[in-house]
Amino acid sequence: MKHFIKQGSVFIWLTGLAMSVGLLMIGGLLTLILVNGLGIFWPEPLIQFQLKNGEVVLGEIWQKETYQVTPEAPPRERIRVKIANRDFYGLDFRWINRDDIESQQRPLDAFTIERRSWGNFFGFIDKITVRDHVIAEGPNEVRQVLPQYLREAQQLYEQIRDVQKNRIGDLNYEIEKTRRTMRRVELRERDPEKRETRLAELQERLDRLKARYQELEEELVRLEERGQSYLANLRTVDGQTKTLGLMQIVRAYQPNQLSSMSKAKIYISRLWEFLSDEPRESNTEGGVLPAIFGTVLMVILMSIAVVPLGVVAAIYMREYAKPGPILNAVRIAVNNLAGVPSIVFGIFGLGLFIYTIGGTIDRLFFPEALPTPTFGTGGILWASLTLALLTLPVVIVTTEEGLAAIPRSVREASLALGATKFETLWRVILPSASPSIFTGMILAVARAAGEVAPLMVTGVVKLAPSLPIDGHFPYLHLDRKFMHLGFHIYDVGFQSPNVEAALPMVYTTTLLLVLIVLVLNLTAIFMRNRLRERFSISKL
């Protein structure tokens, strides 16, 4: 046994076992996320249960399980059914014991209706009314005309959204900009005559904008009245009825009549909606486009801030600083910073960036907006800088190790050929150390993309009314609050009013966050490998 241990074979097996366990854990986690995340977009059939007590239930089967009332009792099976119709029943799911079911069937005329509010509706459409005229009545007629009128209602909804979000939004921006300009003139213009003249011009412009705003409001009312004339009479499986505007329907289909190709089309449509649309229903439905944009933009801004700062600090510590106790203390401090809880960095960012720097910027450059803060409140710029501080130790350590790995002979050869120390650093040392710099950036991106705690106090919000980028100068608005996929997962999974119904969205958003981090890391790894091939020491 002692000879066997000395040979080292046992340690080879132990290390291999540890690697296998790690790979199995990672693979199991990814499999769980894939199965539970991608499956939610596939249309499920609607099952109608006739219970022995006379009750009728319609819904999708989500889960089956076996349980025992007592240890001596025989096992019993129950089914978890998504019954939807939250506005009728107050909940989305219901457990049904298998023994309580008398019969079950798949009604062909049952609809799955995805609504903009109150979640899904499972039931039947009795008739469609447009401008007080009955267009279709009965399952066959409704099925034939529904796509056409649903498409018309969707077009009206898009027109209303364009007026509300784009045209009125742009007008509101111009009105607020004019008001701030008037306030700036009042604060800064010392000549009374010039001040009055300028204020009169701005007031005239403000009146024109308000008149235009009134016209858009009237147009919006007309569009809404027209859209509200598209109605569908809905009926649940137990006979309850409701009238729903077609504009409130995102998607309607009869799942028990769909072919595999039709289900695939709905799957792709839902997946695209998830990637390209805004969230709805307290973030439990719809898309996550604002969160995707906010996550990627924050990581890019963080990388732009942390890489130069970390590289410069590492260069000074390795190439210029005099060895001694002070330098050793700095290195120890940098290494210890890597272990500081992230929320501490968040509080530091809140105090330094938001209250101190942001508040100073507001007092110096945006006094006309006070007391409403511009930069003196959370925003994507401050969140990115906070995460840059959080990941700075990683970049410093990896860059310094890369600089230390370059042989002394390379430096001496460059200096011997007449290059200055700066030229040697810029043209020889840094290119050779660039793979290590990119390694630090990869580690920084991997950590920063999933951080949530610092963002909660520096700018992330549950729902951002507008993206940090638009068509108004300066186009990229770093003072705005933003959405983030990590916070979105936390909000949907733990703060949602309906956690059970939102659980699939948690898995899907988690999968998307993993994929985004993977793409960002693979891009950095590709660039690092290219630089490693180009600036290999053996080629210098």
Word description of this protein:
The two termini are 50 Å apart. The strands form three sheets. Strands 6, 7, 8, 9, 10 and 11 form a six-stranded antiparallel sheet that branches. Strands 4-3-2-1-5 form a five-stranded antiparallel sheet, with no helix packed on it. Strands 12-13 form a two-stranded antiparallel sheet. The mean pLDDT is 89. α7 runs parallel beside α10 (380-405) and α9 (342-365) packs across α10 (380-405). It has helices spanning 2-7, 9-38, 86-89, 139-188, 192-227, 260-276, 289-320, 325-337, 342-365, 380-405, 408-416, 421-448, 485-494, 499-534; strands at residues 47-51, 56-67, 76-82, 93-97, 101-105, 111-115, 120-130, 133-137, 230-235, 241-245, 249-253, 279-280, 285-286. It is flat, with a radius of gyration of 31 Å. Among the domains are: 47-106; 128-258; 297-395 and 440-518, no CATH class. With 540 residues, it is of the alpha+beta class. It contains 14 helices and 13 strands.
In short:
The protein has 540 residues and is α+β, with helices and mostly antiparallel strands. Among the domains are: 47-106; 128-258; 297-395 and 440-518, no CATH class.
The mean pLDDT is 89
What structural class do the secondary elements suggest? alpha+beta
Oligomer: single chain
**Helix-strand sequence:** HHEEEHEEEEEHHEEEHEEHHHHHHHH
The N- to C-terminal Cα distance equals: 50 Å
As a whole number of angstroms, the C-alpha radius of gyration is 31 Å
Principal-axes geometry comes out as flat
What is the count of helical runs? 14
Helix content: 55-70%
Number of DSSP strand runs: 13
The amount of beta strand, in percent, is 5-15%
Biggest sheet, in brief?
6 strands, antiparallel
**Unreliable residue stretches:** none
